[in-house]
Amino acid sequence: MIEIDGKVIEEGSILSRPFESSEIDPEALRVHGRSVEDINCYQSPTAAHEELANCLSKYVNRFDRADKFVPAGYFVNFDTDMLRSFFRNNSDEFYGAWFTAVNIDVAAFVAWKVAEESLQFKDYKLGTLCNHYCIAIEAHDALADIRATRQLFRRLVNKS
After folding, report:
1. Is residue 131, in this structure, part of any structural domain at all?
2. What contacts 77, CB < 8 A, 6 or more positions away?
């Protein structure tokens, strides 16, 4: 999801089959409802990287130090670590050409809300929080997760 000045201007999913050296976790496949056959039908990592770079370049000048995306998500370091690894595995050491080093982690806003309002949750999974704030979510789908995370962030910041 690409948001500029508070407005979502593009969203989508880029699916990539694993790198040949990747180990595939059967539990991850189960959780996401996919099979090895499914993921091996996705486009190559090289093609996915090119698609991503083409999308990013529509909105950011990677040569301008002040023009960068700010990654946002729920426990966003997991996502940025995966994305950095994806770039490196595609022989691209320039993740920082597109993204700032500073992230917006909505889980930190949850911690703030918990402290501020003495809330308690059985766990701090995105689904649990979305449930609490009546936000619909289709778990384990990246686009659905970021849509729900965006709603959760706005709800926490606006205290509504």
Report:
1. yes
2. 103, 105
Residue 117: inside a domain, yes or no? Answer: yes
Q: Is 110 among the domain residues?
A: yes
> Tens digit of pLDDT for each residue in 89-119?
999 999 999 999 999 999 998 998 888 888 8
Radius of gyration from C-alpha coordinates of the chain: 17
Helix locations, the chain, DSSP H: 26-32, 36-40, 45-57, 76-89, 106-117, 126-132, 142-158
pTM value is 0.88
Q: Exposure of 152 by Cβ count < 10 A (0-12 exposed, 13-18 middle, 19+ buried)?
A: buried
What does the alpha-carbon distance between residue 70 and residue 123 come to, in Å, rounded to a whole number?
A: 27
Q: Domain range spanning residue 123?
A: 104-158
pLDDT (0 to 100) of residue 32: 87
Residue 132 within any structural domain of the chain: yes
Give the Cα separation of 142 and 61 in Å (integer): 25
Residue 105, CA distances (Å) to 31, 71, 97, 134, 146 in order: 23, 8, 20, 20, 11
> What confidence tier does 159 reach under pLDDT thresholds 50, 70, 90?
low
Per-residue model confidence as pLDDT tens digits over 48-97: 999 999 999 999 999 999 999 999 999 999 999 999 999 999 999 999 99
Number of domains in the chain: 1
